Amino acid sequence: MSSPRQHDYSVQVTWTGNLGQGTRGYRAYARDHEISVPGKPTLPGSSDPAFRGDPGRYNPEELLIASLSACHMLWYLHLCADAGIVVLEYLDRASGAMRETPDGGGRFVEVVLQPSVLIEAGPEVSRAERLHEQAHRLCFIASSVNFPVRCVPSTRIADRSDE
Q: Number of C-alpha atoms within 13 angstroms, CB side, residue 20?
């Protein structure tokens, strides 16, 4: 058996919110930043609008939920392909709840994934839905967080008019 491989990732976050005074005061700077990885489009980031952020930019909380959702989806598609289940559509309306703490910090208390999947006729729906449990166990991101990540899937079987 081969030893486990390590995968390393590097991301650059650059603060772009200096309005000329740096951080001389809490209201003196923007929370704007750019998230970049060489060779990929830059993501515009900010804080949540509740914390003086720009609502037109991605905030860390949204990106955490997106990471959980995308990781689950990628594992699910892999497992379906291996099991001979043909996925035709996949849409997840994921949500998360973060609670502030008295000291001004906070933490996520739950994320709920709600994947809606359209599969080709043939396999049992229950088999396709069970693969969500395995995808959750294998998801790198879900295995790394210290709060519950629930998955509430719905699966539809395509009829000829869906294809």
A: 0
Rounded to an integer, what distance in angstroms lies between the CA atom of residue 92 and that of residue 67? 12
Within the chain, what is the greatest distance between any pair of CA atoms?
63
Residue 138 pLDDT greater than 90, yes or no: yes
Q: Residues with Cβ < 8 Å from 81, sequence gap 6 or more?
A: none
pLDDT in tens, 50-98: 999 999 999 999 999 999 999 999 999 999 999 999 999 999 999 999 9
pLDDT given at position 1: 65
Q: Are 114 and 93 in contact (CB under 8 A)?
A: yes
- Compute the distance between CA of residue 54 and CA of residue 22 in angstroms, rounded to an integer: 17
- Tell me if residue 60 falls in helix, strand or coil: helix
Question: Using CA atoms, how far apart are residues 13 and 42, in angstroms rounded to an integer?
Answer: 10
Domain limit, last residue, from 32, 58, 84: 58
Distance CA 159, CA 163 (A): 7
CA distance 71 to 32: 26
Structural domain boundaries enclosing 10? 1-58
162 lies in some domain: no
